[in-house]
Amino acid sequence: MGKLRMLLMVMALALSLPCFSSCSSPQPAKPKVEHVLRMRMRENPPDTDPAQSADTLSDRINLAVHDGLVDFDPASLEVIPAVAESWEISSDGLQITFRLRPGVRFHNGRVLTSADVLYSFTRILDSKVGSKRKEILAGVKGAETFNRGKSARVEGFEAPDAKTFRITLEKPLAYFLQLLATPAAAIVPREIYDDPRKGFLSHPVGCGPFKVARWERSNFMELEAFGDYYLGRPKLDKVLVRFIENPASAMEEYRQGGLEYMDEMVGSETAIAREMPGDYRKAPFLGTFYFGFNLAREPFKGNVNLRKAFNYAVNRQALCDQVFEGTITPSHGILTPGTPGFNPDLKAYSYDQALARDYLVKAGYPGGKGLSPIDLWVNNNQKLLEAAQKVQADLKAVGVPVRIKAVDFATFLQALQGTPQTPGEALFYRYGWNADYPDPDAFLYWLLHTRNIGPAGNIGRYSNPKVDDLLDRARALIRMEDRIPLYREAERIAVEEDAAWLFLADYTQRVLIKPYVKGVVLSPLGTMRIPLERLWIEALPPAGTPR
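Above: the chain sequence. Below: its structure as tokens.
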């Protein structure tokens, strides 16, 4: 009887257990939906080495892949912690001690230490690297001595332990922390960036929120969320950067749902804003748009009257209204509205073709006679070509012959920048500059100081000892109210006396972003500063429908 009862209990237990084979079918696992942001860039970034990052395309990628000690809050522009969790500034302002976060890792898995900060910052100042951005650390004690090869180390850099890094300055700099928040001040791993073959140019490695997974040049770059990012894995799984040179093609891709984000529009922006009010975003931008002169070469070298003739010949208001539909505004100087030190009383160049003709006479080219055709260099971009054509027509009206030369962006930059010693090929060129940090120094020092002639920023090769002195003195002061009069005087000389370039317009930011992309913050420092790590995609439309 006991055995029978035991047998019945075993049979009952067997019948009560769930059936995993023939009696039921398993439920299919729900496929994971990848959250991918697809964005357009017109072409490959020229410099994925942050030490050389000096254009908006390169900055966009480098800001996603790399982090530095500190960063900017995208909206307020306050300096906030990044790899450094905190810092202390000595009472005399000369020494800054950073405490690094624990557990920060590079994309190759290695833990970041203060030795990596020491390596990265020393590398920026190394003359063999030839960084275009070495001036961000020029105020560090011993920086110049090291850069000239007179010292084996930078005296002002110390790494006393794995989590502490100390910087000593030659003199206090009010905006030094802001310089450390620029893309060039990224922290990179020595084992990758000491590669003599420069493999890092095709596969950069940083400690930022995204890592480069694939890069098919002139086609796309795939950025993948870094799971070990010290601030937490980004909500986006991937960012697909599609290189689409033709803005009309990109616009069609956006309309058909092939892109979530683009920063260039084709057609009437007024109509686009009406048609897609949830997509169209506009915000202030600390950026200026101008046509530069190569001041190291004839006919602009030493001929301020010719440069003034160009400035009086161009109708800025018509350019802004007709080409850009009023989305940008005429500029009257270098500093843009919203920049500390902006001077609304600076004397602007008016549209006055009679005065332009008078200045051509003073320049030695009456009615343009004796002037060979001047090539106006523009990178391939429809709006910029239209702007060049408008300037070309205005100059032709006073007798100045101009030919437009449109090239790809990398060729364009090389023709403009040259080297610190040798001027570039371009005589006359379109250019834009946006502030890397919210300070008048971010415009005036980089664009005007003799020290920055060449790729560092002063590609027009402008040089005036009075302006250099004013900028150096302004840099040495701490209080903004003391610095501003010096910056304003430097700007006045460059604009009113020297006509350093053809002043055109102040930028605004205009972008298209799908409404289901959340967390978007447009920074006054530009669209490249949209923090991709803060974005997420919400409520995607059904598959097969335009997004």
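Residues 1-24 have pLDDT under 50 and may be disordered.
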